[in-house]
């Protein structure tokens, strides 16, 4: 699916990757992830997109974004919007689909192969547009979690589908312990983005 002389750009939907890897039972080692795609071709761009609350001083997303920024990743952290639903629960709304789409279209003329790490069906039209420009598109997600994380229309449109579970031995590491505050985040901030799982085992700065 990859050629050594092709120029590759990788775009990661942080929220989707986090949910997918957790569902498969392993964390992502982002240092190994960078090395894996660099091994497959000429890696020209490696971008990570996530959402973050501006007023969340102890967000565990922040140290991950900082680590990625210093270790070969282009990071885009979009401010998320906090609101209270009709039941009085505090929730966060936000995604980076538009930002990812713009970034992909901006680089399409300069690469041969684009990798989108997401299973969101909203990317189907983007993939189709990029393919019309002569660029191959691979999608990284999983159909082995329940429910499947990959939209069928996106899988059909992509040139290649890479099962994230098949990359477990090359970019994965065992799931670390979950703090009480992380459990709260996973229950409430369902649209917030990934918890830190960097190669340096970034520790959540929040107190339990």
3D architecture notes:
The protein has 208 residues and is an alpha/beta fold. The protein has one domain (7-188): 3-Layer(aba) Sandwich (Rossmann fold). Helices cover 34% and strands 25% of the residues. It has eight helices and ten strands. A six-stranded parallel beta sheet has the order 4-3-1-7-8-9, sandwiched between helices. Strand 5 (81-84) and strand 6 (90-93) form a beta hairpin. The longest helix has 11 residues, at 14-24. The radius of gyration is 17 Å and the shape is globular. It starts with 6 loop residues before the first strand and ends in a 20-residue tail after the last helix. The model is unreliable at 178-208 (pLDDT under 50).
Features:
alpha/beta; single chain; 25% strand; 208 residues; six-stranded parallel beta sheet
* Topology, number of strands: 10
| CATH 4th-level superfamily | 5'-nuclease
From the 3D structure, determine the CATH topology.
Answer: Rossmann fold
CATH class: Alpha Beta
Question: Can you describe this structure in just a few lines?
Answer:
The protein is of the alpha/beta class and 208 residues long. It is built from eight helices and ten strands.
Give the SSE map.
Elements: E1 7-13, H1 14-24, E2 26-28, H2 30-40, E3 42-52, H3 61-69, E4 74-79, E5 81-84, E6 90-93, H4 97-107, E7 113-117, H5 124-132, E8 136-141, H6 152-157, E9 160-163, H7 168-171, E10 172-174, H8 180-188
Parallel strand pairs: 1-3, 1-7, 3-4, 7-8, 8-9
Antiparallel strand pairs: 2-10, 5-6
